[in-house]
Amino acid sequence: MFSLFQRWREPLIVVGLMLAPMVSFLSSGHRGREPNLADRAVLATSAPIQSVLTWAISSVTGGVSGYVALRGSHDEALECRTQLSESHAELNSLKEAEAENARLKAALSYTEGTAEPEILARVIGVNPSSQFQSVRINRGESDGVRVGMPVVTPDGVVGQVIRSVSSSADVMLLTDAASRIGAVIQRNRVRASVVGAGDGRELSLEFIRREDELVDNDVVITAGTDGVFPSGLPIGTVRSVSRPNVGMFLGGRITPAVDIDRVEEVLIIPVARASSVAERKEGTR
What we know:
- By secondary structure, the protein is α+β, with helices and mostly antiparallel strands.
- The chain folds into two domains: 1-113; 119-284, Thrombin, subunit H.
- The protein has helices at 2-7, 9-27, 37-112, 273-284, and strands at residues 119-126, 134-137, 150-153, 156-164, 169-173, 180-185, 191-196, 203-209, 219-222, 234-242, 249-256, 265-268.
- The strands form two sheets. The chain has a six-stranded antiparallel β-barrel with strand order 1-2-5-4-3-12. The chain has a six-stranded antiparallel barrel with strand order 6-7-8-11-10-9.
């Protein structure tokens, strides 16, 4: 018993000091009186202890409440960030779908104005080699795509099919150095030849006679004389004209009408080069 008292001595003293004023107050029958010397001593001793205990309890309660509130705010902020990320992803998907719908709508409008239905295809690969500039599309022989068919967008010429298998095909871009297109200056109907510059960004204009007129911003379109592309398709715009001191021809650089680096969907015109060439040869006999 004594050891138990020794162990809890200090808490018991504190409790006794805190209870003494209450016992004194209750024993007085709630009648007001002036505190005696003992009362004053007990109050003087217990007041600081009560203040410390009150401060400690308030601090702990405030700390716990603050932690709970902070934890709740952190969880709410995390949830808000998650919802914001999901909203951004959804908005980005909607914008991408809207852009794709606009491109497909333009392609549909283009096909409605042509005599034969074009084959709509998506670009699924880009040749990384600068020696041969081409893209791969997700339509092939099983879809009616044949070697020699011209490839375009509503903005203009993209290139020509050079390889076709069952479910895909390769398209040589008009910017490739091996590309040749019969062309005409739209403003004055001057004939020329458009050659890929090989840099993936520009075209060269060749075989324009020195006496013909050629100026910057002239629009160049297909002439329909090469047996591949039908006439009237936009090729590009003249960016600069070169006039050599010697020679029979002018030169020029052309900016393509189609931004090749941004092409995602294309249209294949179902006219094979082989049949076109055969028809031309038959007509010359």
